[in-house]
Specification:
The chain contains 14 helices and 8 strands. By secondary structure, it is an alpha/beta fold. It has 2 domains: about 220 residues, Rossmann fold (3-Layer(aba) Sandwich); about 50 residues, no CATH class.
Length: about 280
């Protein structure tokens, strides 16, 4: 059962990064310094137009189910929800916070990233890279993957869509079900990347079933790819950064070749920034 403290994890991450084989996979927790709306706030914004008290509305299903209910209650609801999200996620206040965010600055200063995956809808990861003078290609739709990419750009792959292209956003239960087929353009890219890269997951919870499903499928794909190999292959490690490992999850993740990196829970933002800074050596 591999639970690594930062001094143990840093040399492993540094080697993968120097070889160009480390890819960040960033979740909502990564953007905490920007004070963006979380699921509870989004659900509250759905409850009022439907005549529910937010606390009571939350009792009627999971976040994805409630988003599904909201979207089918009226044909224009989803569009209004996304419009409201875009105003809050891409606000001037959030942009100013991004420019001083320790996590975003530390990520952008690592100038050897060639690919970053994220399930976040907002544009702050790509803007942080641009703030640091990096070229960026944002990939969310099939057309994005088809278009010619700028030479030397870091590909930011929006795994659950982007607010810039409304029909790419994965927010409802049916959207997540469709996404779990892992047959879209982003999934084809993921399959190719996972064969030769190590992933560093930051900003996710152990209870995030969507990410756990990706880990499971990644493990399956790696096993199948090795089945036809003439010699046994050592699968590439993935890493999951957390502020509270506990005894159960590391053992479960070890089955999927994922090592857990235990970060300081006292100041979560600072500890994530320290992790990123350690990668650069």
């Amino acid at each position: 059962m591999a639970v690594l403290e930062l001094p143990q994890a840093a040399p492993l991450l540094q080697q993968e990064y120097r070889e160009g084989r480390l890819i960040p996979f960033l979740g909502a927790g990564f953007s905490k310094p920007l004070h963006l709306p979380d699921w509870s706030e989004l659900i509250a914004s759905m409850a009022e137009p439907l005549g529910f008290e937010p606390e009571l509305f939350m009792d009627h299903g999971s976040a994805e189910q409630l988003a599904e209910f909201f979207s089918v209650a009226h044909p224009n609801n989803f569009e209004r929800l996304v419009y409201g999200m875009a105003r809050k996620f891409n606000s001037e206040e959030a942009s100013q916070l991004r420019k001083v965010s320790p996590t975003h600055k530390a990520l952008a200063l690592l100038d050897q990233w060639h690919t970053i995956y994220t399930t976040n809808f907002d544009c702050h990861i790509e803007h942080a890279l641009r703030d640091a003078g990096r070229k960026v290609s944002v990939l969310a739709s099939f057309v994005d993957f088809q278009d010619k990419q700028e030479a030397g750009a870091c590909d930011v792959i929006k795994f659950h869509g982007t607010l810039e292209i409304r029909n790419t956003i994965i927010l409802t239960e049916s959207g997540f079900f469709d996404r779990m087929a892992l047959e879209d353009a982003a999934d084809q890219r993921l399959r190719a990347d996972l064969l030769s890269h190590s992933f560093l997951f930051i900003g996710y919870s152990f209870s995030d079933m969507n990410i756990r499903y990706i880990w499971y499928r990644m493990h399956q794909l790696r096993q199948r790819s090795q089945a036809g190999s003439r010699a046994p292959l050592t699968p590439r490690k993935c890493f999951f950064a957390t502020h509270g490992a506990g005894p159960v999850q590391p053992m479960l993740l070890e089955q999927w070749n994922v090592d857990v990196i235990q970060l300081d829970p006292e100041d979560k933002t600072a500890s994530v920034a320290e992790l990123l800074r350690s990668i650069g050596g």
